[in-house]
């Protein structure tokens, strides 16, 4: 009985050694170093003071504007990144009166480009096309007009048109700009 137990134990040890050797024979080890580079989305907001787009709109604005006149302010966005992008723009108008009263913002008009841009329900304007690297959008607007209805209440006041542009990747991000996700917060 002891001899049978010894032979069985020896057989188990041999089978285990054989199985381990076979397992070692069928396994291998290797390493890999994979680099995945993400794309880049970057834009530049461009504001021009002339139709030839050679003079940037002055940072300190334009002075001595009278009612019934228009000021050239061409607003567009350039894709300076490495990938296609969807573009949206936020425009805020304000009038800071020199005296007391409530300004009427409708007296400050922008000639919005409704052919190339869509006004969203969220207050943003969305460029209708994918913007490829190096391309520039069609202007969102080109002039700021001051209505003749601006009376003495608006004398010595300051009107501002603030513009902020945002971009997200176009690849794998919806079929249209209005379906895109991941917009940066204002």
How do the strands and helices of this protein lay out in sequence?
Blueprint: H1 2-26, E1 43-48, E2 70-79, E3 85-96, E4 108-110, E5 117-119, E6 124-127, E7 141-146, E8 158-169
Fraction in beta strands: 25-35%
Topology order in helix (H) and strand (E) letters? HEEEEEEEE
Count of individual beta strands: 8
Strand order, main sheet: write it out.
1-2-7-4
Judged by helices, strands and strand pairing, the structural class is alpha+beta
**What's the main sheet like?**
4 strands, antiparallel
Count of helical regions: 1
Global mean pLDDT: 87
State the end-to-end distance.
Answer: 86 Å
Compute the CA-based radius of gyration. Answer: 33 Å
Helix amount: 10-25%
Overall morphology: elongated
Note poorly predicted spans: none
Summarize the structure in words.
- Helices cover 13% and strands 30% of the residues.
- It has one helix at residues 2-26; strands at residues 43-48, 70-79, 85-96, 108-110, 117-119, 124-127, 141-146, 158-169.
- It is elongated, with a radius of gyration of 33 Å.
- The strands form 2 sheets. The chain has a 4-stranded antiparallel beta sheet, with no helix packed on it.
- It is α+β, with helices and mostly antiparallel strands and 186 residues long.
- The protein starts with a helix and ends in a 17-residue tail after the last strand.
- The longest helix is centred in the N-terminal third of the chain and has 25 residues, at 2-26.
């Amino acid at each position: 009985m002891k001899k049978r137990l010894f032979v069985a134990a020896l057989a188990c040890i041999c089978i285990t050694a054989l199985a381990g050797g076979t397992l070692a024979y069928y396994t291998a080890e290797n390493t890999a170093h994979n680099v995945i580079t993400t794309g880049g989305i970057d834009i530049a907001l461009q504001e021009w003071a002339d139709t030839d787009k050679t003079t940037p709109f002055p940072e300190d604005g334009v002075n001595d504007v009278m009612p019934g006149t228009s000021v050239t302010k061409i607003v567009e966005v350039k894709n300076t990144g490495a990938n296609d992008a969807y573009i949206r723009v936020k425009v805020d108008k304000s009038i800071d009166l020199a005296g007391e009263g409530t300004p009427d913002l409708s007296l400050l008009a922008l000639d919005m480009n409704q052919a190339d841009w869509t006004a969203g329900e969220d207050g943003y304007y969305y460029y209708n096309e994918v913007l490829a690297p190096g391309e520039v959008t069609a202007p969102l607007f080109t002039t700021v007009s001051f209505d003749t209805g601006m009376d003495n209440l608006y004398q010595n006041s300051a009107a501002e048109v603030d513009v902020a542009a945002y971009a997200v990747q176009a690849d794998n991000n919806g079929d249209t700009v209005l379906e895109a996700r991941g917009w940066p917060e204002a």
